[in-house]
Amino acid sequence: MTHSLSPTPFVALERVSKTFAQIKAAPRAQGGEPSDRPIAALDGFDLRVGEGEVVALLGPSGCGKSTALRMIAGLTEPTSGAVVWRDPAAAGDIGVVLQDPTLAPWSTVADNVRLPLRLKGLGRAASEPRVAEALTRVGLADRAGAYPGELSGGMRMRVSMARALVARPRLLLLDEPFGALDEITRFKLNDELLALRREHGWAVVFVTHSVFESVYLADRIVVMTPRPGRAAAEIAVSADEPRSSGFRMSPAYAALCRGVSQALEAATEAG
């Protein structure tokens, strides 16, 4: 269910719950019959995302982080509750990077990145500079003519990132996009993401298992309980802008990481 909301926030999840049906067969020795075993991924989960805000969803595996992201993207509907947009038109102006890059194997890297622009009716000549810019941002300018099968898993994820960035969306949704990357590339793309956010004013929601990454990237961290996911804590991250490697080495960063780690531990135990 989708509604409009005014004047803030940009997008919100209002008391959303999501239950998936799971078929589980009873052991034959017990003479049982298969039965539906519903799995609750989210239960009364609230999330508010402001214009230009970077929000991290942090929690253990299976706590519903990706489900919440897919709800915002319109890829799955809540069982109850609502996805609420201040401007309903913004629901169609989203860039999404999921854990699986889902690239077209028959298309070149450049053509995969060009896809969102082509769907918007932008011709090849007009889209070429934006495709080149996006590939440069993710460090793949020299692989524009390659095919996905010729790339490593980390490179394919970077192509997926470029494809999301090329359309310059108002909201960027990221589901652990940096997990398959080496640390140097991961840090570089963290910095590029923050630079793009400053340049374009995008709102960003990203899913991560990394306390360190959440503190470095986010304005606000939502710590979630184990399944069914609920918001256990919200932690604001105050840091000088622009953030840089100096922030990662600072006592303030270390203190924030300790605080978030403690909140995550408490949420896990409470769940």
- Which fold name corresponds to the CATH topology of the largest domain? Rossmann fold
Shape category: globular
Range of strand content: 15-25%
Residue share in helices? 25-40%
What is the number of strand segments? 12
Q: Which class of the largest domain in CATH terms?
A: Alpha Beta
Poorly predicted runs:
3-7
CATH superfamily of the largest domain: P-loop containing nucleotide triphosphate hydrolases
For the biggest β-sheet, the strand order reads 8-9-10-6-11-12
Number of domains: 2
Q: From the coordinates shown, what is the CATH architecture of the largest domain?
A: 3-Layer(aba) Sandwich
Strand-pairing-aware structural class: alpha/beta
- Major sheet summary line: 6 strands, mixed
Task: Report the end-to-end length measured between terminal Cα atoms.
Answer: 27 Å
Rg computed from alpha carbons, rounded to a whole number of angstroms: 20 Å
Q: What's the order of the H and E elements?
A: EEEEEEHEEHHHEHEHEEHH
| Mean pLDDT figure | 87
Looking at this protein, list some descriptive labels.
disordered N terminus; 6-stranded mixed sheet; single chain; Rossmann fold; 271 residues; 4-stranded mixed sheet
In a few lines, what is going on in this structure?
With 271 residues, this protein is α/β, with parallel strands linked by helices.
Explain the overall architecture:
The protein is of the alpha/beta class and 271 residues long. The protein folds into 2 domains: 2-25 and 35-93 and 170-270, 3-Layer(aba) Sandwich (Rossmann fold), CATH 3.40.50; 105-168, no CATH class. 35% of the residues lie in helices and 24% in strands. It has 8 helices and 12 strands. The chain has helices at residues 65-73, 109-119, 124-137, 153-165, 183-200, 211-217, 245-248, 251-270; strands spanning 2-4, 11-20, 23-24, 35-36, 39-49, 54-58, 80-85, 94-97, 171-175, 203-208, 220-224, 231-236. It has a 6-stranded mixed β-sheet, sandwiched between helices. Strands 1-7-2-5 form a 4-stranded mixed β-sheet, with helices on one face. Strands 3-4 form a two-stranded antiparallel sheet. Helix 6 (211-217) crosses helix 8 (251-270). The longest helix has 20 residues, at 251-270. It is globular. The protein starts with a strand and ends with a helix.
